[in-house]
Structure formats: C-alpha cells, structure tokens
Design brief:
Elements (H helix, E strand, L loop, with lengths): L16 H15 L3 H7 L13 H5 L15 E6 L4 E2 L2 E2 L1 H16 L3 H8 L6 E4 L12 H13 L7 E7 H6 L11 E6 L29 E13 L3 H7 L3 E7 H6 L2 E11 L2 E2 L2 H6 L7 H7 L2 H5 L4 H4 L2 E12 L11 E10 L2 H18 L12 H8 L11 E4 L1
Helix pairs in contact: 4-6
Length: 403
C-alpha cells in the first residue's frame, strides 16, 4: 500500500478569522480528505464495484418508535425571516421566534408539548453541531442557545445536555465553550493535535500515550463500528486525525453509551455538486477513521452510518442552520461564496431534509451561474436511504411547509 502523508489544519486560538480562512481551505481540506475531489470521482460515468460494508448487520436490529425517519417522515419545514441576520450576526430574538414557528409547524404542538413528544426529563440529549468554518459558516451559537433554552424549559437538566462534534479544538474555535454555555457539557469525540507535523518522523508525542496509542482511543466503542472494505493509513499524521487505521470506523462512546437522544444541527453548504448538510454532519461526525471512506463511498457513508441503531434510534430532530449559507467552495469555508439566507429548516427525517436542501442549493448555484453537474448519482445516497426505510427522497412524497 502506498504511504501517504496527511497534513493537519492549523487552528490556533490566536488566529484572526481572516487568517483562519486563509489556512482553512488548505489545511482543513487535506484533513477532511479533499472531499470535493472525492465527490467528483465518486460519480464518474463508470462507477467501480460497490465497496462491501457491514450495513446488513445494522438493518437486522429491530426499530423503535423514534427510529428514522422519525415521527414525521417526509415532512420538512422552512422558516425564513429577513431580520435574522443583522450586521453579520444572528439576532437572538428573531432566531428564537423562527425556532418556535418551525417547531410548531413540524410537530403541530407548542414548544412545551413538542418537548414531551420527543424527550423526557430523563434523557441525555446530544446537540451535534458543525464547527467547521468558525465565525463564517459554522453552526451558530445563538441557534444552539435557543435549543438549550427549549430543552431546559421542558424540564431537562442542563447537565444532561451535551454539545458535541468529532474534534474538541474545533468546538472551542467556533465558540462552543463552557463560558458561553454554563452547566452544559461540551465534548469532542477526540483530541487532535492541530500543530502536529505532516512528517511521520516529527514530534507526535502530544497526541500519543506512553504505549504509543492515540490519547482518544478509549473514547471510541470497539464493539460498535462501521466496517468497510477499505484500509486506513498507519501513518502517524493520519492517526493523529483519525485515531485508528484498518477497516473499522468506531462510533464514539458518547453516541453509543451515553446519549439517549440526538438533535442534529447542520449548516447549509455545498460539497462540490453535492451538499454537506444533515446526513453528512452525522455520517462523518460520529465515527473515526473516515478519510479512507471519502474516495470509494463518499456519499453512501451518509446513509449507511445513519442506519446504525446508535444514530437511527436516537436522532429525533434535525435542524439545518441556513442563517448564513455557502453555495460554492464547500465543505470548507469560502467567504466569497457565503450569503445571508436567513433560514432554518426542521425535520425528523434527515433524508427528506437533505433532498429539499439539495434542490435549493442547485437553484442557488444556477442563479450564481456556477457550472454544476446534476447527475443523479449526487443524490443516489438519498434514494438509497428511502429503499432502506430510513427516510423519504422522492420529492413527490415530501411535504415542504413554510412557517
């Protein structure tokens, strides 16, 4: 197997937002496996033989009342308010009103009854955010604050709320800190040393324990994994970012052992001619050792990972943050392609949600005269999910409502 070196994104708390964006497209793009390139290659005219995975094992597990597509299959609510973004920042009172309108339109209930429909005070609720592109295109802290307030008002102790992502340093960079969210837990599934060298012979001591293992190895559940017949690299730079090599992508113990419900708060952005929204936020955010998956099965990961019970049976609400959106250059931040969309989207069905948002993205890209490819393979993973009974991708069956 050819040795390949990987470079980590350099995210220093002292960096200005401008400097972060300058290094982000280069460093983070490599960290995430240049997903736009993989997405393009994944839809060539003659696709390779399908990569084997353990999806069948996940599908054998009996479902629950909350299992995807959730309580409202094929229902998507779009809330838009021109006053949502003011001087480059969300207006908290407006966002709160939008959240209440969207939630009521989705569930048919007021916020308190909506809480009881989805949660109990005994739940441990994880709010999965997307911190990539801090300060520009990341999940807005204002929206997450509204969600936390709603959960607390419903009777859920803040100590039972966890704001999480895969990488702890990115959460901090995006403003998800204990100072901003007192009494709420802030957790990354893993630590990554953003200053580690791309040279395997360099200093990698900061992310390794005395036995040479990743310091975050114990954060992942070795009994619950997404297996795909693709090898991960054994290079130290790869392991810094991905914890394990081999053919197993383990789910975080936070997801498998502690959380009882999940709220998925993605952002509205593209990845090449596809999108990087609700399903990708969890598909690539809940497991380790992901870079190996980008090229051979890029989009299908977004379907298959969500089929596992630790996601499928716990994911009760999806919200796509379109307060600010990005239509080109994604999934990494590209300021010149961002705009105030002033929108929030709500669904229990993440595949219906991504179907609606994909078509809105295509429309926006056409309006901007971006050269796009509308090959159906960019949305095959959504139809795949419908065949697996995880969601609705047929636009004729999706009910999109304005609130």
């Amino acid at each position: 197997m050819t040795t390949q070196h990987y470079r980590s994104i350099v995210v220093d708390a002292r960096l200005s937002r401008r400097r972060f964006l300058e290094v982000g497209a280069m460093g983070a793009g490599l960290m995430l496996g240049t997903p736009e390139v993989w997405a393009q290659e994944a839809v060539k005219a003659e696709p390779p033989e399908k990569t084997k995975t353990n999806i069948d094992e996940a599908l054998k597990v009996p479902r629950t009342k909350y299992s995807l597509p959730g309580l409202f299959p094929g229902k998507v609510v779009h809330v838009q308010d021109p006053g949502a973004m003011v001087d480059d920042s969300p207006s908290l009172p407006v966002v709160e009103q939008m959240f209440t309108r969207g939630l009521k339109k989705l569930t048919g209930q007021d916020p308190k009854k909506s809480f009881k429909l989805l949660f109990t005070p005994d739940d441990v609720v994880g709010i999965k955010v997307n911190p990539v592109g801090a300060g520009l295109i990341s999940t807005r802290t204002e929206l997450v604050q509204v969600i936390v307030n709603w959960l607390a008002a419903g009777g859920l102790p803040k100590a039972q709320i966890v704001i999480w992502d895969r990488f702890d340093h990115m959460l901090e960079e995006a403003g998800f800190t204990s100072e901003r969210f007192p009494d709420v837990k802030i957790e990354g599934l893993q630590t990554m040393d953003p200053q580690a060298p791309s040279d395997p012979q360099g200093d990698h001591s900061r992310w390794r324990d005395q036995e040479g293992n990743h310091v975050s190895a114990s954060n992942f559940d070795r009994n619950v994994y997404y297996w795909a017949d693709v090898e991960g690299s054994n290079d130290l730079p790869y392991l810094n970012q991905h914890v394990f090599s081999g053919k197993h992508s383990y789910f975080g113990k936070l997801v498998t052992q502690r959380l009882t419900k999940i709220i998925n708060v993605a952002v509205f952005k593209n990845t090449g001619n596809g999108i990087s929204m609700a399903t990708k936020n969890l598909g690539y955010g809940a497991i380790c050792n992901t870079n190996r998956l980008h090229k051979p099965i890029f989009f299908n990961v977004c379907t298959e990972v969500l089929a596992f019970p630790c996601i499928r049976d716990k994911l009760v609400l999806n919200i796509t943050d379109g307060l600010r959106a990005q239509y080109q250059g994604g999934p990494m931040p590209a300021a010149q392609f961002t705009y105030d969309f002033n929108s929030l989207f709500f669904a229990t069905d993440p595949f219906a949600l991504d179907t609606v948002c994909h078509h809105l993205m295509v429309k926006r890209r056409k309006n901007a005269r971006i050269k796009i490819n509308e090959h159906p393979r960019y949305t095959d993973y959504l139809r795949y999910a419908e065949r697996l009974g995880l969601g609705i991708a047929d636009r004729e069956k999706i009910k999109t409502l304005q609130a």
